[in-house]
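fyi for ur records
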Amino acid sequence: MGHNPPGLTMADRDCREGARVEDRDYGRLFDALPSPHLVLTPDLVVVDANPAYLDMVGTARGALVGHPVFEVFPPPAATADVDGEPQLARSFRRVLETRRPEPSFVARYDVLDPATGTMRERWWSHVVVPVLGEGGGVQLLVQRVDEVTGYVRAQEAALGTEGAGQTSLDTMHAELYARSLEVQAARDAELRTARALEAMPSGFFSLDPEWRFTLVNAAAERLTRRSRDQLLGRLIWEAFPDTVGNRFERAYRAAADTGVPQTIEAYYPAPLDRWFEVLCWPNPDGLSLYFADITDRTRAAEQAARMSARLAVLARVNDALVRPGGVEDAVRSIPRLVVPTLGDACVLSLLDETGRLRDVSWWHADPERRAAFAGYVAGRLAALPDDAPLPTSLSTGEPARGTTSSVARLLTDDDVARRLVDLGESHITALAVRGRDGVLGVLTVYSAVDRADDAEHDAMAQTIADRAGAALDNARLVGAQTALAAELQRSLLTDPPEPDHLQIAVRYVPAVAAAQVGGDWYDAFLQPEGATMLVIGDVAGHDTTAAAIMGQLRGLLRGIATYSGAGPLEVLRGLDASMSTLMVPALATAAVVRLEQTPADHEQGLARMVWANAGHPRRW
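which gave:
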């Protein structure tokens, strides 16, 4: 239409042109309608007519567009009411007033036969529908026309006469009206179903028994990134080849073969790269597929599962590090604990006392590759250059990354490089085992390239490496402190004297391995008059504090005994008084023995033992 028909404003035309674009080629849609349709302005000027309408009336579009409808098709006088208003005009008027569709009615409307030049009798079923504008007013009228001439004539013949009178015509009108209501109700139901499918947030496909698409809603277009034109009539296996041979195809065929609905959650690869939940519902016409994108939900669940697995690994590592026993052994167990959650293989390397790096433990998740991995680990340290991930992390204290192929190119030993390559392409992450004063070693994690890249895994692996470093640091610090205290304690336990009349031997053995330092002591010394004093004592505690207090009490007791020359009882009484006076915060026990020998006793080979005990168990 190259001009604006009477009654159609430029705004109306712009709106209509906009509708063409928005409604995906309105012209093609209108022309494809099988039923005759006529579009009018509120002033009843013809705006457009589809090919079905033009074929029905035998008129070209140019003869209709821009002309008042009753000028082109004068209404028969017989269709006018008592006021002279034609039935069709009355229908148009009611639609304009109510802004609601007008139920169908049957009316005779003769048309010109181009071949004979005479008028032909025609009977039409009319339905008028309003098209409302943004303000709610009627912008256009759409008239749908169905020719029912054959039906009317058949009814007349059935009644036994042509033109059987007004009664028979009224009967046909009533029957046609009822039938038109049924048809309209069916069409309305179909439209409501179509609108519901279009409004669904979930995708919907309908497949015929041959697996061809027969219906695709808007959500399905959006979710699959395919238009209706690309799908309708095509086989699902051709349109979506990645549904073949997997859970999608098995579920679809199971639903079709058994008649039992199927529900699946499955991943469709690139270019969609999404997870879908699909309900397969069999029906007499084929199969209906309802599907929703559950990628975010699935990935959130996967992330939560990975987090739970990481925390479980951390808990196992913490449990191993605090369990009674050697920390070094606990740290060596880390590769077995982190595989396979944080990687497919792992090696722990620690610096020894000389500063040389050694691989102390390793593990691989695949039992069939463990021997090959062990062969690679056996030779890798000697073949690693300074710019490889492990030496880099060792020197910087920061994570360093590479791949199997990149590290293999750096290795100085071709046999070691081949062993690494044979293990398969992996991402390699070297994580420093950090202590208080520097790096103690490196934890190297190997992850296959098909494993999802997860920064949280690397962060957890670094946390575990740091905890291993802290545990080693603490164990070594405690060991150094214990050794120092033990040396101090042993320095206080001097060698016994060697009097002529007595042979003294001593042995100091802690009761348990953990009690290398504590308040136990022994002593042996001579008093001024020549008597030999033996002492066994114990300060409560197995730590450096107990050892320090033990040193004080040992010195006090020695001083009291050697200055006073008193016997065991007085020596213990003096020690107790000195502890109270000096406010020594300790609980201690002691047993003191003095061996006395007069010249006469010496000649007879005799000696007298005098002893006193302050809570200490007797051992003689």
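The domain at 203-293 is CATH 3.30.450.20 (Beta-Lactamase). thats all i got for now
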